[in-house]
UniProtKB/TrEMBL annotation, chain A:
This is TRAP transporter large permease protein. Residues 9-418 form the TRAP C4-dicarboxylate transport system permease DctM subunit domain. Coiled coil: none annotated. NCBIfam families: dctM. The chain crosses the membrane at residues 50-69, 81-107, 113-131, 143-161, 167-193, 214-236, 242-261, 273-294, 314-332, 344-371, 397-415. Its main location: membrane. The lineage of its organism: Bacteria, Pseudomonadati, Pseudomonadota, Alphaproteobacteria, Hyphomicrobiales. Part of the tripartite ATP-independent periplasmic (TRAP) transport system. Belongs to the TRAP transporter large permease family.
Automatic annotation (TrEMBL), chain B:
This is TRAP transporter small permease protein. Keywords: Cell inner membrane, Cell membrane, Membrane, Transmembrane, Transmembrane helix, Transport. Residues 24-153 form the Tripartite ATP-independent periplasmic transporters DctQ component domain. InterPro entries: DctQ, TRAP_DctQ. Part of the tripartite ATP-independent periplasmic (TRAP) transport system. The complex comprises the extracytoplasmic solute receptor protein and the two transmembrane proteins.
Length: 430, 165, 313
């Protein structure tokens, strides 16, 4: 039996039976290993190494920092400030979420970490203000993905290494498309919010005095990004360490300034962060195994070889590659996808005139979208956990945002200037 | 003091402590490197080991709370009895998967005593870290069985508390 | 084909490692009259180097090219290849590698369930940094240098008066860019392939260690082969290594010229190299226990010394 068919059928059957997503993936992997005549010890080994990754530590740490900022009273003040800026505009907190994610993206290189950091503050706030749980989680999941399009970005580093493309060039090329994604999400959320009547219930009209007072109230919260960004760009710590510094900062302010955190509060936040990490990582573990098995059977290679042979029109080819990237992004873990597909697709796309940097940005946007598409969408999992809602609901609410992001991806793929203008201007590309 | 100790399962304690170790070690690393220009080669590896244990206990915590992600809207819509039967079936499938991991994990662990993998910065045999794989899946299985029982006893009327938009 | 070998390595297609692997594929298939099929998986698609090495033992994957330092945790004996300044030129290194193949193959199957077919290299590791030209041991002091997570590399840098930082590979580039660390050490070609020239300025040939990487095969798989195929693989491995070393030399030359063009300052070897050597060589006895015991280290260094002398005659 064809291996991809076997994997898909097994996976879907168990999923429908109500078996957890991670286990359905894992069982498909077990069957595939057996049919490939590979020992099950590969499963055991990968179950360890998929977790044993230093850079993933940033995920629970940013979740923890977010939770502590909420418990410690920083969030309430940050929301007060956001509310003062946005005033009674419809969808105001959704806008704040998008802006915050965009800003935080300049600190974080990871999509799930961005979703965790902003989502754990903004989703409860949105729910409190009467926004739908699904909507609040969906906007955080989608906007969190911007974390990998705006520099720094872990997927860009991996792409740069695999494709031998300038990483600094990629970083700079991501700025404009990243801001476009924020803009597209903002427009989408504004339309939805207006239709559903999401708005701050008791917001006072905007005034400079109010904004100033709220900013002063929120000064400790507003200093957090300054500390983290400043620390990273001045070379005091790495991105992973920055997540730890964020936790210590939140603890310090929560304990000594606002005096709203005690031992119980700390332990509650910690177990919460550990549980969410456990929920998300179990899917990553079995997903990693399936990714490896697909590589062994050279499935991605076969798919793209087929594409290249059958399509000759450049526009059609690029469109098909976009569809393929989004489709594979639904099922596969980001880094695996980049490592496997880059060497295969890069010669094809440069042949039809794309710059490797431009394709890198397109690819990273596809990964960004993949974070928020089921069945394997890490942001989706993080956001639905924080939002205390189901993956189905968040997925449904994500559809308009995903459509907007796919539109931006298409623009970046067909208009080179969007990604290439800035790196050319600064001399990182020719 | 009693309030702090009460109401937490052992896996929550271990998970929280392991993650606190990660936090403390990495915080120490930043201070040592930036403040005192010192660097400790074992720090990165030890914090990763503690992290792996924390995550595996996270698996167990999520199992005990029945919070591992599943697609179950269509099952929730069923009447009580068929719903319970389906969930039991699904969880049995889960236990079968865990059994595969535990069985092969046990033999893999044993083989690591014979063929050690020596951590370069701490000198320990990594078997002591990697054995969390069969151990974690075993503990998870215990919690899954408990949840199955709870469900039939009706204590866990599986109303998905996450539902509702 | 009767047998399939899945061969994993961590580099991309432009690397000498990959070109050597392709040569191995060609030769193994030729010498086995097509009874063996080799499939190459670049870029760590099947798992990290250490992960795959462990998978070789259980037979999940059949073969791999990996950095010696990543094999040491499983097969301590191979650590003799990493003794600082055991050899100081490519020719010396090649002689030592070839002479050690058989003695190592008496030990590795027992230690890690793998065996060596041939030994690749990518040139000596050189020090890059963004701060200043390092010409003497004094210039090195105070720099924050990332090393790979290997005890010998860590201790060697300590003997030079530094606290080296064993940072995860994925974090190295951004850390160099943002100045969390000042430098790193890898072969010349890595500065090209990982774009370090964008964030580094100075290169010193510290020459203490060559990037050596054996092509290893699962002992369980190897023992399941008929004798003629075992021979075919041994021959293919050795000849692929000869080819790979030539490619590596060419690539290293090319990389050095390229790096100068890209604005890096190549300082050659330190002017006080004897100081570096004597500090690092003084550590040899302290490594013995971690790399197979004193008896083995004495034997292996004897073999290397003899091979190196023989090579220069
Ligand atoms: Na970012
Ligand atoms: Na996805």
């Amino acid at each position: 039996m064809n291996i991809s068919l076997l994997l898909t059928v097994t996976f879907v059957v168990f999923l429908v039976l109500g078996v957890p997503v991670a286990i359905s993936i894992g069982l498909a992997a077990v069957l595939a290993l057996a049919s490939a005549n590979m020992p099950m010890s590969y499963l055991v080994q990968t179950a360890y190494t998929a977790v044993d990754e230093f850079t993933i530590i940033a995920v629970p740490m940013f979740i923890l920092a977010g939770t502590l900022m909420e418990k410690g009273g920083l969030t309430a003040r940050l929301i007060g400030f956001s509310r003062a800026i946005v005033g009674p505009a419809p969808g105001g907190l959704a806008t704040v979420t998008i802006v915050a994610c965009t800003f935080f993206a300049a600190i974080s290189g990871s999509g799930p970490a961005t979703t965790a950091a902003i989502g754990s503050i903004m989703i409860p706030a949105m729910v409190k203000e009467g926004y739908g749980k699904g909507f609040g989680s969906a906007i955080s999941s989608s906007a969190g993905g911007i974390g990998v399009v705006i520099p720094p970005s872990i997927p860009m580093i991996i792409y740069g290494i695999t494709s031998e493309t300038s990483i600094s060039g990629l970083f700079i090329a991501g700025v404009v498309p990243g801001l476009m994604l924020s803009g597209a999400l903002f427009l989408t959320s504004a339309i939805i919010s207006r239709r559903r009547g999401y708005r701050a219930r008791s917001a006072e009209p905007r005034s400079l005095r109010l904004v100033g007072r709220a900013a002063w109230e929120a000064k400790w919260a507003l200093f957090a990004p300054v500390l983290i960004l400043g620390g990273i760009y001045s070379g005091i710590f790495t991105v992973t360490e920055a997540s730890v510094v964020a936790v210590f900062y939140a603890l310090f302010i929560g304990i000594f300034v606002y005096r709203e955190i005690n031992v119980t509060g700390y332990l509650d936040s910690m177990t919460y962060a550990v549980r969410i990490t456990g929920t998300v990582m179990l899917v990553l573990v079995t997903g990693r195994i399936v990714g490896r098995i697909l590589s062994v059977f050279q499935v991605p290679q076969a798919v793209s070889a087929y594409l290249i042979e059958t399509v000759s029109d450049p526009t059609m080819l690029i469109l098909l590659i976009l569809v393929m990237l989004v489709f594979i992004g639904m099922w596969m873990e980001t880094l695996t996808q980049i490592i496997i597909l880059t060497p295969l697709l890069l010669p094809v796309v440069t042949n039809v005139g794309l710059d490797p940097i431009q394709f890198g940005i397109v690819f990273v946007i596809a990964c960004e979208i993949g974070y928020s598409t089921p069945p394997l969408g890490v942001n989706l999992f993080v956001a639905s956990e924080i939002g205390n809602t189901t993956v189905e609901q968040v997925s449904k609410a994500s559809i308009p945002f995903l459509a907007a992001e796919i539109f931006v991806m298409g623009l970046v793929a067909f208009i080179p200037e969007l990604s290439m203008w800035l790196p050319r201007l600064l001399g990182f590309a020719t | 003091m009693r309030r702090i100790l009460a109401g937490r399962t052992p896996e929550e304690w271990i998970g929280a402590i392991a993650m606190t170790v990660v936090l403390a070690l990495l915080g120490f690393q930043v201070v040592a490197r930036f403040g005192f220009s010192r660097s400790f080669s074992w720090l990165e590896e030890v914090s990763r080991f503690a992290f792996v244990w924390a995550v595996y206990f996270g698996f167990v915590i999520a199992a005990e709370k029945d919070r591992h992600i599943r697609i179950s809207l269509h099952i929730e819509a069923l009447p009580r009895r068929p719903r319970l039967i389906l969930f039991t079936l699904a969880d049995t499938v889960w236990l079968v998967f865990n059994a595969v991991v535990i069985w092969h994990g046990y033999w893999f662990t044993m083989s690591m005593f014979e063929f050690p993998y020596i951590s370069q910065t701490t000198g320990i045999n990594l078997v002591w870290v990697q054995m969390i794989v069969p151990l974690g899946f075993l503990l998870m299985s215990v919690r899954i069985v408990q949840v199955m029982i709870r469900r039939w006893q009706g204590e866990e009327e599986h109303v998905d508390h996450r539902k509702g938009d | 084909a009767d047998y399939t070998i899945r061969l994993s390595h961590g580099d991309n297609e432009n690397n000498p490692t990959h070109k050597g692997a392709v040569k191995f594929e060609e030769l193994a298939e030729k010498y086995s009259d097509g009874r063996i099929d080799v499939q190459i998986f670049p870029n760590n698609q099947l798992g990290s180097e250490q992960e795959v090495a462990q998978a070789l033992r259980t037979g999940s994957i059949e073969a791999e090219v990996l950095y010696t330092g990543n094999l040491v945790p499983l097969a301590p004996s191979v650590g003799v290849m990493m003794l600082p300044y055991a050899f100081t030129s490519n020719d010396e290194a090649h002689a030592a590698m070839d002479a050690l193949k058989d003695p190592l193959n008496e030990r590795l199957p027992k230690e890690a369930g793998v065996r060596i077919l041939g030994y690749f290299e990518k040139g000596f590791r050189v020090l890059t940094n963004s701060k200043r030209e390092v010409k003497t041991l004094d210039d090195l002091q105070g720099l924050k240098i990332r090393v790979s997570k290997n005890n010998i590399a860590i201790e060697t840098f300590k003997s030079w008066g530094l606290d080296p930082i064993p940072m995860a590979w994925a974090e190295v580039f951004p850390a160099l860019q943002q100045g969390v660390i000042d430098g790193q050490e890898n072969p010349y070609t890595t500065s090209i392939s990982s774009k370090f020239y964008e964030v580094q300025k100075y290169i010193t040939e510290i020459h203490y260690l060559i990037w050596s990487g054996p092509i290893i095969i699962s002992e369980r798989f190897y023992q399941g082969l008929p004798a003629d195929l075992q021979e075919a693989l041994d021959r293919a491995g050795e000849e692929a290594a000869v080819y790979e070393r030539e490619v590596s030399a060419t690539e290293t030359d090319k990389a050095m010229k390229e790096l100068v063009k890209l604005g890096m300052v190549l300082s050659g070897a330190p002017t006080d190299e004897e100081k570096w050597q004597s500090a690092a060589k003084a550590l040899w006895p302290s490594f013995s226990d971690d790399i197979g015991g004193k008896e083995w280290v004495d034997k292996a260094s004897g073999i290397m010394e003899k091979a190196i002398k023989g090579g220069s005659e």
